[in-house]
Amino acid sequence: MNRFTILLACAAVTVAAHAEVKVLERSDKKTPEWITGAAEGYIVSAVEAPSIAEARTRAEQDIASQMAMAVARNVEASYSNQSMETAGNAGVDSRDTYSSTVAVQAANLPFLKGISLSKADAVYWAKVRDKDTKAEYYQYYVRYPFFHVEQAALEKEFEEYDSAKEAELAALEADIDNVDNLDGIKSALGTLESLDGYFFDKVRKARVKALADRYRVLPKSVVMSGAFTGPRTLVVSFSLNDHAFKVYGPLKATSNCASAISVKPSQGAYTITFGTDDCLDDEENYIEVNTRFEGRKLNEKYSLNSAAEASPRFSVVPTGKILLAADTASVDESTISGLNIRLSLNNRGGSPFGVKSLELEVPGLATPIVIDNIDAVYTTKGIVQLAVHYEGTVGIADAPASRIAMAKGTVTLINPATQAVERVKITLPFSSNWHSKN
Known about the structure:
The protein is α+β, with helices and mostly antiparallel strands. The protein contains seven helices and 22 strands. Strands 15, 16, 17, 18, 19, 20, 21 and 22 form an eight-stranded mixed β-sheet that branches. Strand 3 and strand 4 form a beta hairpin.
């Protein structure tokens, strides 16, 4: 006798194992032979219930359970049947509760959704009274077709379905160290709840429970940190077990001295900008940041004093001699055409900067040199060279012989830390490849 036949036989004799009863009613005069033994190609269900309606429901659950046990691996069955009687003015109220863990889990298998007693090959029931307790209930028997071809098809479908569920669990186990937002945690817990309702075996149920417990405590490990990206900019971000974690929600920033505080969320982090005109160097200045995450209060103070010390100071100074080289020069016409300009800039603070425009007044030239939209960017500390070309023709004017040849003007810079435009004055000697009129 194979495993499936043994299961059917055990189910068929369950009702017969009860105490001696008296039959009050029955669906047929003769008890059919099939209720006491397994039949090839059939499932035989035998249940007890306080009513016919309840018996039909239990029979469908039992059939689903037997099908699941026949086609599924790792099935562990658990049955429970509890009876309770309560005495009252209206007599004795009898209640009977039946449950099966296999029936509950089998209900989650999509390919076992079509079970109906309308497909049963035969049904027999008897209303009986227990001679010892006088309790009355129904014994209900169903013979349900379940041929080998159908069983083989369901086994294949189950293997595919079960493998997909196992893959879902394995993916959640692998992803727990990389989850980067609260929605990911909640989604994982929802999937685990579904998997817990599906898995039949204790081993995988234990894996699901342990993994769900790990996901539930993840929010408690989220920490907040901040870094100054400039003397007036603080970026606040979050991490979970040493990897970035995105937090969305209100965040409040206050200070004991900073003004014009602005908080802007960006991709699960926050950029805080502020002014420091009212902050005194000899006092402890700070930005305090507060937010709430899953019932926890996250609070940190960030020192503005250390930010000012750690941030590169923006200081760019023109230096050296300006080199001017005209593409062409006509002394007779007193003009030059095209002008190459090389200017040295000392990036003393080491902060990256951009050059927007240049204006120069050169002795010996009739009009100032103006060059816009330079858009050069420098990131290194120390001397850097600005080389630009002026397109156009400029007249040559008289230059006082006694005057020291000094070019004056301004270079317009961009401070990337604050996006502020700063104009720096130029007063430097120069050399040229043409001669002014004397």
